[in-house]
Amino acid sequence: RPLFQSLQALAEDNASFFQRSGTESGRRFAAAFAALREHGRRLEPALRHFARLYHRFDLDEATPGNGYRSLVQ
């Protein structure tokens, strides 16, 4: 959760900063940071879901070898 809270705060701050510039580049950066904020907001529940399930795909209890674990980390 702290990672996504930081992502949301930083994306919001950057979007606001670039929106105030009044330039085309600034508007494009602002839109990119707004999109990043939205992607993070939508991605967090999916990653929480994977975190609850990835242990099922380990090779065995002592060998955490699967791509889901790597994706979440």
TrEMBL record:
Official protein name in the record: LIPS lipase
Domain Hormone-sensitive lipase N-terminal: 4-73
InterPro entries membership: HSL_N
Primary gene name: Lipe_0
One Gene Ontology term from the biological process aspect of the record: lipid catabolic process
GO molecular function, one term: lipase activity
